[in-house]
Every structure is written in C-alpha cells, then in structure tokens.
Amino acid sequence: MTAVTADHHFEHLAVLHHGADDLARCITHQVAGAVGRGDAVLIALDEDDREPLIARLGTAAEGAVFLTPDGCYTNPGGAMATLHRTTTEAVDRGVELWSFGCIPVEGDTIDPRWVRYEQAVDHVLGHLPLHAVCCYDLRPMAPDAVDAVRRTHRVVDEPGLGQLPSGRYGALAAEDRAGAVSVPTWPPAVHVDGADTQSMRRALAAAFGPVLTADRLGDLLLLATELAANGMRHGRPPVELEAWSTGDEIVVRVSDDGTGIADPFPDLRPLAGGDHGGFGLWLIGQLADRVVVDHHGDRAHVAIALATGHR
Amino acid sequence: MRSSGVIDSTTGLGRHDHLCWAYTDRATFAGAARAFLADGVAIGQRVTYIGSRSTDALRHDLAGFAGMEELLASGAATVLRLDESYRVETESAQDEAYATATRDALDRGFTGLRVVADATDLVLDAAGRDAFIRYEHVIDRRMSAGLPFAAMCGYDRGRLGDDAVAELACVHPLHHGTTTPFHLFASGEGRLSIAGEVDALSASELERALLRVLSGTRPGTVDLDASRLVFADHRALLALDAAATTAGVAVHLAHPPPVLVRLVTLLRPRSVHLIDV
Question: Which residues in B lie closer than 8 A to residue A276 (C-beta atoms)?
C-alpha cells in the first residue's frame, strides 16, 4: 500500500512555449531542482525537444529517465495508468514524481480525448505527490487549442510572464467530454440486446470482422462484453448495444435504464478490482482510444471508439 | 487433437471419444445410443448399454440393432442396470472399474470398450452431481491418455433441468442438447483443454468446474490448451486464476486467443501465465 502524507505536493501545470530552446529554458530549473532533491523525474519529450534540455542540464540529465512520447501517449487510459503507477512507485521510495510530457497535438488542435485526459488528471491523481508538467508548443496551435490547455490546468507557464493561475481553469462544458467520442447520427450497423452476450459478439464479429485484424477484433469483442456486463451489473435493463463503423474507428455505445455513472472518468481511475471482477471500466480505459460516459434521454450511456488500424 | 464441440450425430466417433448427450425424448436417445454402439461393434470394441430401467426395457431400446441377440449371447455386448454396475463409493472406483473392464476386453480380443450410460439417477441432487462431475473428468483424463475406451453419457434434461445438464456437459469434450458455453476436458499428456467462450455470465460456472477438474491434479503446473477458446472476458480470467490459486497450481496457457493474451498482460494474474510456444 502506498501511504500518502498530507503535506504532499500535487501540481498539474502547463508550459506554453515557442519551441525546443524556449522549452528547455522554461523547465531546466525545475528538472535540475527535482533531480537535486532526489525525486523521480520522467521526461517524455520528442527527441528534438530533448536535446537542448539535456545540454542545459549537464550532469543533472543523468538523474532523469527519458521516454518517447509515442510510448507514453498511445491512449488516455494507458497514459493515466502509467502516470499513476510511476507516482506510487516513487511514493514507495519516499520521493515525489516529476513528469514532463507533451500531449500529442495534431495539426493545430488537441484531440478531445486528450483534453478529457488533461481534465481528468486533477480528479484522478490529485491526492498524490505528483508534479505533472505538460509542455505545449504554442506555434502550431489554434486559439481554441490554447484555450483548452488553459481550461484544464490550474497553473500555466505563459510565455514571458512565468507561472500564473489560469483564469480559464475549470471552464469546461459537458460538450468537452462528449466530444471525445463522436457518435454517428446514421443508423447503427449493429443494434442488439446486450444481455445476450454470445449473440452480441457474433453480430459484432459478422459486421466488423472483415475490416479488423484478429487482435483488434478481440479488443472490440472484449470492450463490448465488458460494457454490456457493466450495464447488466450496475444499470437497469434493457441493456442495448449499438455499433457503427466510421471508417477510421468502430464506435460502440451501450445504454441502460439506470442512473448511469456519476464519475465522469471511470475508465481513467486506478486499477481497483477484486478477486472476481471490478476491472471492467479500467480495461475499457486501457483498450479504447476514446471513452465518454453520459446520461440523456432517460438512458445511461457509455460510448467508446476503437481505431480500426494499428495504433 | 481430440474431437470437441457440438455434435448432432453419434456416428463416426473414435475409440477414445467422450460425449455428453442430453435428451428430452427417450426414443431419440435410444436411437443415438444404438448408432454409437454399432460403430463400436464395427471397430471391434466390446459394447455395454447401461440405464436405470429394467434390463428388459434396456434391451428393448436396442431392438433393431442387427445381430444384437448374438452379440449379447457371446458377451460382445452387455446390458446392465445403473444401480448394479456403477461404483460410487469413491471418485476413482468407477474409473478403475472401467480401466479393468477395458483391459479385460482387450484380453478377450476386442479392440477396446464402448459404453452408453444414462447416469441421470446418480446426479439428481447437488452432492451426487458434484461427485459425479469429478469422476467424469478423471475418466476423461484416462480416455485422453490412450485407453481404448469410448463413452456416451446420457442425461435426461426433463428430470435434471438445463442448469444441471450444463454443469455436467461442460466437463465433456463433445456434447449435444446442452447450453453450456464452454468445455473443459483432458487433451493427453496431462494437459487440460478449454473450448468455447466464457464471460461474466458463465465465469462462476467456469470456476466451479475448474475447482472440480483441478481437485484431482497434483500441486505444480497445469498446461491449459486454450487454442479452442473463442472468447474470455476479465471475469473469466479471474475465475481461472481463483480456481488455480485455490487448487495450488500454476496454469500455463498454451495457444491462447489474442483476447486472453491481452487480459493476462494487463491484469497479471497470480496463478495464470503465458508460456512461449
């Protein structure tokens, strides 16, 4: 068990910068300080961003662990699980964790699933001695994307101004979360009773087997089964499953008549199952590329999306 | 590889096959039994037909079987009452009785033994069922190890109900007329096989079946061939892990489907491991 002292430090801050040299200038002091105190330091930056930082750090660079962002940020569930695990490992060693990373920015936008992840960090890891420093290169980012960063971080290191409380923090609409999965408006390719899990899997395999590898189809059937099982266990019948192919993704939505899940980030919570179950939502977070829970039209919904290609 | 899965006919099965045939209509069951026994006679196995009713009624079931009178007269075929022939004092007693009977058949020039037994009366209550299911797996291991013994186990669905029949069926490699979504059976060289699919709806049944099946194994390692497992969810893996942990064995998964590899990698169970094959 991990004991967390009351006087621990949690911070989740964004560094808005203008490229590798600027970033190195912004964070060298923090990295060197953490290494100097003997804290655990993880740095998941692109190679280009890493080099000026290493040059500035000198021998202090040897006290940090460098990872590739591709390995850390494949999907939000995996990223959160890694961050949680490394933080608790640091706690077990009696130190704090400093994590410097760069969430993927695609073109000029941040994918809604990563906005949701950033929003969840405070909720999921806020009780741990973690310093999560999220580095964003301002240059390609559209104003909406920069605003999303300010809305998901309590403190932002603004260019030329230093660390400031974000006036936009917490200004998140429900659409921000829902935007993580775009449920198609056209009729689903599969619409079945989620209580008959065997028939449900056969229908999904028939509809999507031809466009998925064996591994991805296995993931899809596992996700659908875990979602349906969750609806049956915690929700109220009827449990229905709908699924669509959007070309790039398979979208699955399971709904029931229950009150739904109050926690907006159940898939991003640390592993907390028992001997016989309780890992369903965590697994969904590990396997799905996007997850959204909501409640509308008197039905509780969990929607997930799974990329059809290789990650 | 041993035959496994759903069957609609009892013809064409091999000399070690083990099937569960659940029935609602006795006449249909008798027809399937005749076909199974006729195949045995054709490949030189001694055949036995066992049931709870009178010997005359059992003989009547076999009416129409060409040459049955001669086979019965010569000892190549026998008809026995369940209460006179089944030894239930210990789990291994009937297993040993069949091993002896098979060796006796071989000594007399037969190629082995083939039995149809309607065991419904032995499994009407939970305790009887529990003991009998353990025995079913013990004899299944012996068959898969090469004993030239084939068996068709008949169960009356009307008297037992679907749940009890599924509980019995899931420890047979071949089955007919049942609803169990998975099967556990021996596959030679001490290996265990799992076929079908298991999820949250059947995970507790899997754990119960595994505890019975593993109760007869020595502590150590059990190789589980999962090549015929179509699907498992996380509760299925946890059921497997719980049963293995309780039985004090480490399960090594051979040929698991991608979904099971995923689950083991993510959940890292205590007693279930992937092996490189």
Answer: 203, 235, 238-239, 242
